Amino acid sequence: LYTPSPVAMVNPGGFSGLRKAFLDAEQETYNAAVEDNRAADTLADIQRRYFKRFPLSLPFSEEPTEEFLNSVDDAAPDPELKPPSKDMSPEAFARAQRVYEFEVKELKMRKAQIKRRLQYVHNKTKNQQAAYSMGSVDDPMAVLMSKLTGISLHRPRLKTAYNLWGPENRAEAALRSAIYKECFDALPEEQKKAWALRAEAEHNESLRKVEDALKAGPSTSPVDRQKVINCLPKFIEPLLDLIADHTGWKLSVIAGGPEPADGGRLNVISIHSGVTSGSVKMNYGRSERIAYKEHVMTSFGRFLTKCYPVQECRERALQTGHDIMGLAELATQHGIEVHSVPNGEDDELQSRSRGPTPLNSRPATPVPDTPAGVAGPPQPPPTMVTSSPVNAPSPSSATAAPQISTAPVINKPSPQPLPGSITVPDLQNLPVQKGKGKKRKSTAAPASASKKRKTTSGGSSSTAAASSTPTRPIWVSNPLELFRSKQLGGEWDLLVSNWFNLEESSEFTGNAKLGTRSRPRIIGEWIQRARTPNFDPYFDVLRRDGDFEPLRLLGPNGLVNFIGALFFWGCAVQGKSAEIKSDWMDTLKEVAYAIRQLL
């Protein structure tokens, strides 16, 4: 048996040598995974590859050979840790059982060590503490705690005149503080009085700063607000537990709004006290996770979007250069729940903010530029939104089909402020909101850039008038132009053509809405020009059931979002391996099959 020498022994709680080098190399991967909310999957993969290079059979103080490391294949299946067979002799079985139990414990311990190390280094790089000091008048959380608890801030002490004089006259007092008083007493009376008055003035100034900090209103600086937000868990949890102990009740606190460290996105924090009875203890958020997320978080998210205009969310975002920990990082440390307001709220706001331009109005003149049947890809429409002026000088230009903009128009006198969005810096497609009224039925066609065009009962509007305005809603024309921007193959073109024909069959009047449960996040972020998505289809189950009517979700919040997810996914896999492309192609066929059943 191998017995390590005392010189070779290392701290069992730390990693060194090649083990440390491996984990250091994987740290950036883990940090990125934490930012993308996929830390658990990445951690499992790092642990798997670690044990391929440093198996349990290798003593912790011994390094693997370079030849062994070069032979490691990460794609190969991992060996199973199996218990010994009972067919062997009792002595051999007992020995093998001890080895097996040791390896199980060793595996569990090393996995926990790897997890703790990666988390520790990640948190250390943030270099932020969600704490406060009662001795600082510049700490907003300290000021808040003093107001709530009545505990005074640490007030500055009055310095004696000779202690104030000494540091500025060290040349005359070589032994510094030991002879400060002796040298100070040798000064003329006028100078001693002047130093005493100065000490009193500086003390009064320090007291004034403390009083001003307590009397002044809360700081509106994004940095100060983020510091207070980060302290909420440590501040609220003890209060909830104390109230729960004295009342015997269960308590929950929900707080939300624009988070400066997250770019002004609307985030919600949930803190619960009290758990269920039984052997498995769960608080309110975990016990009722689905209902809590679908109903409580959804309704509270709608409330937040009514409270925070887009511009206010943008102004609350931290400027670049600040390295302040946000709620997402704190959630992994303290076990709190952090939710983002569903991006689907932006879709509703976009639909409501279209004003007097009805999405369900029928064109006065038949539109000749639709895709030619199912067999071919859709052709570019001649009356795209880009053909009309973006900044029309007419005051009634807000009634025309809205243009794509990197920021919402909120300086009009009549619209109400637009509610806040999740991804404030990348917001788009939010036109001017003209009111909260319900969608009107088709009584008028879209207006031109100069003035409204009235429709007649006989549809006698001229062809020129019809061609001067967009003949399709912007939620159709913009995605259609985007879906044509890249060549993804004939099957993709056929899918887009079938989707367009399906929407056109309802005359673009669909108003169905997809739910947010199990929906890829990229759907909402696509509307705001966000990152590449990861699409998880569920059409195969519906195809086996044979009923595709639940998928007849037409309109701006329906199937167009599925097509958008497929488009972004297809762009991401271009140039990748055939295996990666095959996943996208299989999903494309599933979606195309489902849409064909709806035609």
UniProtKB/TrEMBL annotation:
- Compositional bias segments (type: Polar residues): 352-363
| Compositional bias annotation for Low complexity | 384-408, 456-471
Protein known as: Uncharacterized protein
Protein's organism? Hypholoma sublateritium (strain FD-334 SS-4)
Positions of the region Disordered? 340-471
